[in-house]
Amino acid sequence: MNEPNADVADLVARLRAGDDAAVEQLLAAYAGRLRALAAGRIANHPQARSELSDVVQDMWISALRAIREGAAPADPDGLWRLLAAITARKCVNRITHWSRLKRAGTVPLGDADVSGGGDPAEAAEADELVRLVERFVAALDPAVGRVALLRLEGRAIEDIAALTQTSESTVLRRLRDVRERLKGLLSE
């Protein structure tokens, strides 16, 4: 099944029934077109473009959930419109996230240059800082450490809550606990 066709009704029914082979067929039928759609939507956004695979993966998770919950039309055009709409929404969400970070002047740690600009002393200092932060996070409860790292990456509270499958108030409480621990360490 390399192109969507009249067998979509059967495919959707099998997906709703939990058939893993149907997932593979859906991916084979639509993956290329959806990846191209996502790439076109985020082409002018370099930060989001570097996360194309994440955007596409998030789209598939949402799409499969929608199909299994019965939200997918059983005709090829209707299914394509649903998949395209989910893809477009995921692209907009990612672009919005990066725009917020840019406005706030926040850069995720993975994109930050901590090399010291070529100065060996500054690079060593930056490496030491990274090691200290890593040691601090490693000493935290894993759930709390994950929240702290996601926040350091510049993620929004609501994004962290979704990623960690907790409430926003839990995320805020965990971040407050991390700040208190850091303050305690700094006052020693």
Word description of this protein:
With 188 residues, the protein is mostly helical. The protein has 2 domains: 8-104, RNA polymerase sigma factor, region 2, helix turn helix motif (Rna Polymerase Sigma Factor, Chain: A), CATH 1.10.1740.10; 109-187, Arc Repressor Mutant, subunit A (Orthogonal Bundle), CATH 1.10.10. It is 74% helix and 0% strand. It is elongated.
Report a brief summary of the structure:
The chain has 188 residues and is mainly α.
The top level CATH class name of the largest domain: Mainly Alpha
CATH topology of the largest domain: Rna Polymerase Sigma Factor, Chain: A
Structural class: mainly alpha
- Shape designation: elongated
Percent of residues in helical segments? over 70%
Name the average pLDDT. 79
Low-confidence runs (pLDDT<50, min 5 residues)? 109-116
CA gyration radius, whole angstroms: 21 Å
- Tally the structural domains: 2
What characteristics describe this protein?
74% helix; 9 helices; Arc Repressor Mutant, subunit A; mainly alpha; Rna Polymerase Sigma Factor, Chain: A; single chain; 188 residues
List the helices and strands and how they pair.
Elements: H1 8-16, H2 20-41, H3 46-49, H4 52-68, H5 76-104, H6 120-139, H7 142-152, H8 157-164, H9 168-187
Helix pairs in contact: 1-2, 2-4, 2-5, 4-5, 7-8, 7-9, 8-9
